Amino acid sequence: MAADLEGKVWDALRAVRYPGMSRDIVSFGFVRALELDGGTVTCTLEMSTHNPDNAEQVRAASEDAIRDVEGVTAVEVRLHVQAPQKRDPAPKVSQSPDLLPNVHSVVAVASGKGGVGKSTVSANLAVSLARQGLRVGLLDADIYGPSMPTMFGIHERPQTDGQVAIPFEKYGVKIMSLGFVLDVDTPVIWRGPMVMKALEQLLGEVAWGELDFLIVDLPPGTGDAQLTLTQRVPLSAAVIVTTPQDVALVDARKGLAMFQKVKVPVAGIVENMSGFTCPCCGETIDIFKRGGGQRTAEVLGTPFLGAIPLDPAIVEGGDAGEPIVVREDAGAHVEAFGSLANAVRTAVAERETPKLTIA
Ligand SMILES: Nc1ncnc2c1ncn2[C@@H]1O[C@H](COP(=O)(O)OP(=O)(O)OP(=O)(O)O)[C@@H](O)[C@H]1O
Ligand SMILES: [Mg+2]
Fold it and tell me: What is the mean pLDDT of the chain?
């Protein structure tokens, strides 16, 4: 009977949504504890948000929902709002700091799941940073399917200069990819140690020179391979790419948790494939909805870095070896990626401790 009542209370909570989201608070993992003593229900909610009013709305809605369950005689819903992820000054958190001594900031581009546009964002972010006058490298660390050879139209093997490989340079960006060293026709089972060896070579045995930013395009997901990569690459910050749907929140949360585990600060969330503007009538259609990235950032207590529109021209550019910010000199995409580049620079700069200068 008690179990029956508990099931009904969980069902009632599953009908409560976070303001502006279509997913329920149970699937978001906000319900931390539920205790029943006869008809008396005590529920504890825990969430991290910049918006305490929204959290209070969720608390009140949960209390109402539980009170309406038949058999419930008294209800208390407790709310713990955690401070959003603390933005401590934490510059390079690095397990292998000596791998890239001349690179000022290494920024990973990651996502909880595949196909959301990490490589597209990495390529266009790198070119946009270079256009802002910075020295930029791009490391394609996607062990499952390196994209940069296609996205930059480079299909040769890198030259070596004695002991180190010379990165390719295109559109102002130095580029190195696992795709340049993998034999595409031979399927390779990349076991952990082999991957790490290859990656360490791409980091340490490449003539990157002095760089302001090295952008690292990570493989999709948050499994062991990704976790190990984030541990081995000396990351300054991570950018998480998501699509606008509410379901993407779950994946973005996984991405955030992975970086928290390895103590890498998350610079923020980018919403990709956000709104499609019809070239015929100019109307904007939100194919995958819109605003999920911003709400996700709010719920997870991390900055929102901006939205990139959905546009077939982005696919064409990627397939033709010409990132969209190279294809189009100006316009919405150039602006969107330019403002993303600014947001990343700001987020990284905010996390840096002032360097001591010895006169
Ligand atoms: N804003 C956009 N508008 C239209 N198409 C896009 C956009 N962003 C990415 N794409 C396209 O979506 C596909 C997947 O993008 P991309 O390869 O960048 O994703 P990914 O997250 O790196 O994928 P994977 O997980 O396989 O590495 C590509 O064909 C790309 O051109
Ligand atoms: Mg990719």
Answer: 82
What's the CA gap between 210 and 101, in Å, rounded? 9
Distance, in Å, from the CA atom of 269 to the CA atom of 275, rounded to the nearest integer, reads 17
Portions of the chain given CATH number 3.40.50.300: 97-350
Range list for CATH 3.30.300.130 in the chain? 2-82
Total-model pTM? 0.74
Q: What is the DSSP string of 83-150?
A: PP----------SSGGG-TTEEEEEEEE-SSTTSSHHHHHHHHHHHHHHTT--EEEEE--SS---HHH
Fold of the domain built from segment(s) 97-350: Rossmann fold (3.40.50)
**pLDDT tens sequence across 162-184:** 778 899 999 999 999 988 876 65
Q: What is the CATH number of domain 2-82?
A: 3.30.300.130
Q: Compute the distance from residue 315 Cα to the ligand 1 centre, in Å.
A: 7
Percent of the chain with pLDDT over 90: 35
C-alpha closest to that of 71 among 37, 102, 46: 37
Task: Give pLDDT tens digits for 122-135.
Answer: 999 999 999 989 99
Element (H, E) at 78: strand 74-82
∠ Cα 222 227 160 (to 5°): 115
How many Å lie between the centroid of ligand 2 and the Cα of residue 62?
A: 40
From the CB of residue 327, how many other CB atoms can be counted at a distance below 10 Å? 16
Ligand 1 atom nearest the C-alpha of 312 is: 4
